Amino acid sequence: MTVYHLALDKEMLQGARVALLPGDPCRSPKIAAEIAATYGSPLSPRPLAHHREFCTYLCTIRGAPVLVTSTGIGGPSTSIAVDELAQLGVETFIRVGTTGAIQDHIAIGDVVITAGSVRLDGASLQYAPIEYPAVAHHDVVAALIRAAASLAPALNMAYHVGITTSTDTFYQGQERHASFSSYVPRRYAGMTEEWRKLRVLNYEMESATLLTMCTAFGLRGGCITGVVNNRATGEAITAERLRLGEARAIQTAIRAVELLIHAAP
């Protein structure tokens, strides 16, 4: 069976049970290349399919097949990627992306490990009611923390574990006034300061859907993002900040997958 959106079938996955999920399709070959450079293998990397926003590579980490599949931006397309990969046997999903911090102690290039997400999206509501928490699986969180701790000295980065606000929109949903209309609906006006006081660490756009789905389906989900701007300190996104945050999130996620594979029975 070939799944409709990803253009993949079980044979193509070669038994892969773990998937890294960047949002940007252009990030899939970057992650695959980093895996190949780190571990090396005749199977790594191998492009499998690129259909719509879903770009998939098959890689190998310590002899185990691992997928890299882009989800596109936001919950709806993420839900498609997670569902169709689960249909093909994938059991562990780690989002690898970038993020905007909202706490002033978080630096550009740090990584945020999401323990749970504020469900400010719409897609997750079609899997569970709003009272149902969007929480990361403890195995994945533990592996991400171990990976970040092991890499932090060499990369000169800090890592932060906590709550993420996950939104459907980049502008209004994250209280950005630099949009076409510059108008932020009353519901969201002042929201960033409220999240800050509630010790939320950052904004991003996929984790609420991913984590809700994984828990509801009995799968393992997690999320790590590299900080590319900070709303609290006014540091805006630049090409260099984007490169730095992206690279550190990728390196940490890959190391976490190795730890998860090594811990598998």
Key features?
265 residues; alpha/beta; 10 strands
Q: How would you write the strand order of the largest sheet?
A: 5-9-8-6-10
The separation of the N and C termini measures: 28 Å
Helix content: 25-40%
Which regions are unreliable across 5 or more consecutive residues at pLDDT < 50? none
Order of helices and strands: HEHEEEHEEEHEHEHEH
> How many whole angstroms does the radius of gyration measure?
17 Å
The helix tally amounts to: 7
Q: Main sheet?
A: 5 strands, mixed, barrel
Number of strands: 10
Report the portion of residues in β strands. 25-35%
Broad shape:
globular
- The class by helix and strand makeup works out as alpha/beta
Secondary structure: elements and pairs:
Blueprint: H1 10-13, E1 18-21, H2 27-39, E2 46-51, E3 54-61, E4 64-69, H3 75-87, E5 92-101, E6 111-120, E7 134-135, H4 138-155, E8 159-167, H5 191-197, E9 200-204, H6 207-217, E10 220-230, H7 239-263
Parallel strand pairs: 1-4, 1-5, 5-10, 6-8, 8-9
Antiparallel strand pairs: 2-3, 3-4, 5-9, 6-7, 6-10
Mind explaining what this structure looks like?
There is one protein chain. With 265 residues, the protein is α/β, with parallel strands linked by helices. Helices cover 34% and strands 27% of the residues. The protein is built from 7 helices and 10 strands. The chain has a 5-stranded mixed barrel, surrounded by 4 helices. β3 and β4 (64-69) form a beta hairpin. α3 (75-87) runs parallel beside α6 (207-217). The longest helix has 25 residues, at 239-263. It is globular. The protein starts with 9 loop residues before the first helix and ends with a helix.
